[in-house]
Design goal:
The chain is mainly α. The chain is built from twelve helices and no strands. The protein is elongated and about 75 Å long.
């Protein structure tokens, strides 16, 4: 019997995946895994939504944040009964637009946080590197100053400064710098103590490098990542502290729009069950910004700190 001729089905050979494609797919997979662990995309989107109005508040704010009319006082949000589409988030007790004041208040918070963290970080990093590198009486002096700074109640310090002068953005920045620099100094000092005993520091000394060059070119790059992470985590803390000082009338002076002042303006209305939106929306803005910056700081810590990375 003749063997049956069996039809052979054509087989399509799988195309080999190139090495660059595999590497790109691996990087995309790791990025998506990190995005699922830390909601990076919502964080960045939220920060962009809040930072862009802070930068371009003069252009996109629908109303003047400092001017209002009594005829439009305490208007509810636009989607509620009695609301006006011109005032999306409603108005306060003197008819000022809540949305416009939140935008301009975001600008105040961003400026204060950026300036205070930059000055405090620069001062604390410089003193921390000096204390950790030189040791001896320099280390003792810096650390005693750090202990004094950490022991001063911040609210009491703000009250003393305001009693001596008057509420202003400059005084708020001064209070924040006096509070924050010690955190950077203590962190950087500990990092410097670990770096200065490394072999590359000894080789730099043997090669004739000056102490200034060693601190700037070898020590500072090794502590920079920790400083960036701490600065990111401090943004939320600074915003809460600035809002607290403004809430207690020792921060940003009225009628300058500030989130803490807006929450303080609406506390009486909350008790009377009228105008709850005056405090709610700036409070939500504070909560979202602080939450986003803390999550972003955690993500940066895992990305920049080799000891936190998973193998």
């Amino acid at each position: 019997m003749a063997a049956e001729n069996r039809a052979v089905e054509p087989q399509i050979a799988a195309e080999p995946i190139s090495a660059p494609a595999e590497a790109q797919r691996g990087r995309a997979g790791r990025f998506l895994a990190e995005a699922r662990r830390y909601p990076l995309f919502p964080i960045l989107l939220l920060l962009i939504v809040l930072v862009i109005p802070a930068i371009f508040a003069d252009l996109i704010a629908p109303h003047d944040p400092k001017l209002g009319t009594l005829s439009t006082r305490l208007l509810p949000p636009a989607w509620m009964e009695g609301g006006d589409p011109q005032y999306i988030l409603g108005t306060d007790r003197v008819g000022r637009d809540i949305l416009s004041r939140i935008m301009h208040g975001a600008r105040v918070s961003v400026i204060i946080a950026a300036v205070a963290i930059f000055i405090a970080g620069l001062l604390g990093t410089t003193l921390g590197i000096a204390a950790g590198y030189w040791g001896g009486w320099v280390d003792s002096l810096v650390m005693r100053l750090v202990d004094i700074s950490l022991s001063i109640p911040i609210i009491l310090l703000a009250l003393v400064i305001v009693a001596a002068t008057k509420p202003s953005i400059t005084n708020v920045i001064l209070v924040l710098v006096l509070l924050l620099w010690s955190r950077y100094a203590r962190l950087v000092r500990g990092e410097t103590l670990a770096v200065r005993v490394q072999d590359f520091i000894s080789r730099a000394r043997v090669s004739g490098a000056s102490h200034r060059r060693i601190m700037l070119r070898h020590v500072f790059p090794n502590v920079f990542n920790s400083v960036i992470v701490l600065a990111t985590l401090n943004v939320g803390f600074v915003i809460i502290l600035e809002a607290t000082l403004s809430f207690l009338a020792v921060g940003i002076p009225p009628p300058q729009p500030a989130w803490g002042l807006m929450v303080a303006d609406g506390r009486v209305l909350i008790a009377s069950a009228q105008g709850w939106w005056v405090s709610l929306f700036p409070g939500l803005a504070i909560m979202l910004v602080v939450l986003s910056m803390n999550l972003l700081g955690d993500w940066l810590r895992d990305r920049l700190d080799p000891k936190q990375r998973q193998v």
